[in-house]
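re the bet — no i am not wrong, look at it urself. input seq straight from the record:
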Amino acid sequence: IVVVDDPREVEDILLRRNREFDRSRLTTQFFKPMLPHCTISQLTTPDLRAQKRLWSDVMSHDFLRRVVAPNIHGAALELVELWRLQSAQAAGQPFAVLHDFDHAALDAIWIAVLGSELGVMRRDIGAVRNGAEAPGEAGTGVGDGKVPLTGPLASGRKVQMAMEYMNYIVERGYTSLWPQLTFLLIQLTSEFRRFKRITDAEIQRLMTAASQRFQRVLDEKNDGEEYDTCAMDLVLRRQLLAAKKAGRPPPDPSKDRAMLDELLLLLLAVSAHPLAALFPP
């Protein structure tokens, strides 16, 4: 382990010389057991470089301004509306807002990454209007976090609980003395498998729907950039364009584990830090 404590040297390495240094194995161990195919879990290979190029513009200034910012703005407006209702209901008394940030961040990042509204804040606003308190954190691995998988994936509430559970176990892994062992043990539980199936099924459903939509757009001899609504759209469109130019059949996104893991990484990384999602640099 090399510790660099010179701020200028650290800035130079991170901003200008990052290609000279591979990712540390200490870094990869946190996410590798749960998301083995995402970029943060891998050391540099030709396949990883290609995967990074595919996702390179997801954090570009133009994409954030054009696609992500309107979604964050909408979530922030709903957060203000929720607080207005809670303030009126509290009649001058203090009220808790911690989970409000969590829910607004989850709404914002879900639609920014996947292009679909999860509706967490709308459910909270509806609860307050009906005279009840807005729900707190659902997916903590105990109590109401245990949702049986019966029938089709029906409600955004179930997906919300699954994402909150996934964030919960990431936090457990980070605070553990042996993160890799902790994640491996968590993966053996029925609760993890249940919630992982929920998130995978919903993301794969959205990926398939977006892929079918872009196939129709690209058939019209259009690169489809103006139809991007989220990070997933950008990457799917690039994959379809590459397949079309190479004369290959369009890929099945539901079987692309690397893309699924990368989308989950984006969801977990940002929704785990709600203020970063609502107030980006």
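see?? Confidence is low (pLDDT under 50) at residues 138-154, 274-281. told u. also The radius of gyration is 20 Å. so pay up
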